[in-house]
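Worked Example 4.2. Read the sequence first, then its structure tokens.
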Amino acid sequence: MDEAVLGKVTALKVHGVKKRGWAGRGYRLVGGVSILLGAALFAGAFRTARYGPATGLSLLAVGILLMLFGPKLEEWFPARSKERADSTKSVAREYAEALIIAVLLALVIRTFVVQAFKIPSGSMLPTLQIGDHILVNKFIYSFAALKRGDIIVFKFPQDETRDFIKRVIGLPGETLEIRGRQVLINGVPVSEPYAVTSDGPFARAGDRDRLGPIVIPPDKLFMMGDNRDHSMDSRVWGFLDIHKIKGKAILVYFSIRSEDIPFASIPRGVVYVVTHPSIIRWGRLGTLLR
């Protein structure tokens, strides 16, 4: 091969590498911004009415994926790589593509895969503590059947703008009865090692000790909190439509004694947690929910 031809080939190769280099930088930049923004939302440094820790977790996942695999996309799609090498596409367009991919991945993860929730009350004590942050599997019931004992997040029947979390106690078609705080399904006592009772106030007198027998309609569930005397559940608001389920709670990924934080301001609260790590319930991190 003569020197002129060799020079042209070398120039094309260098040109192609340069273009792919800008694409790789675009994915890394968008990935880094996604991680920073996701970490801020996740930690509660700021939030809006629509975006909070759940969105932050999705952005963190997307950022990590882009940092790890974004620069390799052109290697996986050689035809696309050649088109980029031969084009005069601007750097701004490369960054725009990376940003669009990040947004789409975040939306897919949050909508169909997993979502994060924070536990604000004690209705599921001792299984879930106030200040627990949990992950909810949003697609599991597309492949698996609901079971008694599953802990699920759902739209509150009386106000669907709010999310509730309770345990599945009664399934469609079953006959449920509560007799002396003992739950019976089809006349058989149910073993509930997770349930706790006390003599504290309850939403409606007597409901904790007796109910039914009642037949659970098709496509309905009977839900109860583990903290039986401090839970507003199906004993108060009735059956849950299975189409209102958001997903199954699977894991505690973070937990903090939020009631011990002396500041109402979120930024000051975050600083307090960083400087007082003992406020974090380290032993609960990674707890599987059953």
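Now turn to a second chain, presented in exactly the same format:
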Amino acid sequence: MLGSKISFIKLIILFSICFTLPSRGQEISISPAILYFEGGPGQSATKTIKLSNHGKKAYDFQVSIKDWTRDSVGTKVYAEQGTLPHSNANWIRVSETFVRILPGQEMQMTINMDIPAELPRDRTSNSMFFLTQMNADRQETNHPSIGIQINYEFGVQIFHDPITAKKGEVIFRDLQYLEDSKLGKRQIRVDFENNGDLHKAGQLRFELTNTENGKDYKLSELAFAIMPQGKQYQVLDLPKELVAGNYHIVALLDAGPGYELNIAEKKIHVGF
């Protein structure tokens, strides 16, 4: 039998959800994307997530909790449970370690947080709740001896914000124009930091004005999310059709309601 002779490559596709994200064929969805726990030292809190199967087959998921942080460009970096300094993974209790959801079924999952009597720090703590598919279908490929097994993994972010945490702001540290004629690259780089003790998310917007003819250009927006006391940078490619010349660039950093709009500006010369 051909299938018995095939070596299968196991792939895990992670959906770290920032909205309700259905997976393969719109079959599985999970919400909400983020759980914010409230409560003081020594208290317990409970949240629920909803898992829905819109497909025609049953799905089996393994439940786990992991640590995570963000690197210098905002990408999530994962670690084992309870190993990072600002983890709350060991505060989390879930009643199920294995979940089966049948076709057409909707189910609620309960996640409990037991907040320590003495908080180790006055800043946001975080972890990630994972559902990893265990019964993925095996798919053959064009290669006679190789197949692929794709396992879907869903991640829900978990945060706890102490009431004593310093709010702070997200502020610019630098605004640069980068140019490489050999690679044909013309870019704007912004460096920014979160000087508070709360996790923050928002948008970076850019306005570009040609100081020779007054023409304005609206550039693409960039989303960001940044850890407490974190430092990041993001790079934006300028449009290829942008003509060379002198420009005034304005960058706006919007962390949402309750935070000041931070602005950086610079005069630049765009080449080639």
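Notes for the reader: Residues 169 and 260 are 7 Å apart (CA to CA). The longest strand covers residues 146-160.
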